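Think of the structure tokens as a kind of shorthand, similar to the way a musician reads notation: each symbol stands for something richer, in this case the local conformation of the backbone. In the example below we present two proteins back to back. Begin with the first one, reading the sequence and then the tokens, and try to describe in your own words what changes along the chain.
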Amino acid sequence: MANPFSAIPTPFVVRIGVRSWYANCIWDGMGLVAMMGADDAAIETACGCCGSAMTIVAPAQCRDDDERRVHFAIPAAHWWDDIVFN
């Protein structure tokens, strides 16, 4: 692993144009998109709750009328509490 890249296949595939990379987690996937300075990118992954396939599109420009949302079930202060066990 060389954050944000993964040397092995993971459930987080970042696609920019015709190229793709594996990320270690969704945050690394977003970091990879930012680091590559992509015009448009997509992260292919699955819902952590039900396993349904999902694609997260990361457009080059954010818009004020964008209605995307994110939900964090665990407060940020506790994200790394069980890192040894995952």
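Once you have a description of the first chain, move to the second and do the same.
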Amino acid sequence: MKKLSKGYFAETLAKYYLHCYGWACIDRNFLSKMGEIDLIMMKKKQIIIVEVRFRKQNIYGTAEASIDHKKQKNIRKTAHYFLSRFPQYQDHAIRFDAIVFNKKITIKNLLWIQNAY
């Protein structure tokens, strides 16, 4: 499986996993000059900004460790940009989560980290 298709598969699995918990996807792969948000999910008046990561091997660290401070900063900036573009969500509570896969992209290997940063 190519890198892009693995990433797409991981995001799709994460999206459907969250959907099973009542979260609806309001945007996917939202882009700005500062970066990209993989998934933006909503339930009631709460929004989660989700970073999805996959690491086949842990030679350079785990998938969760790959979400460094620079990546977090760029995601926060992109989230602020998203809210400026879609003011209807500005009164929602916002949380930053991560869904990570280590070694394989399967439900068994999915780890949902709420309030990741």
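Compare your description with these statements about the second chain. The longest strand covers residues 46-55.
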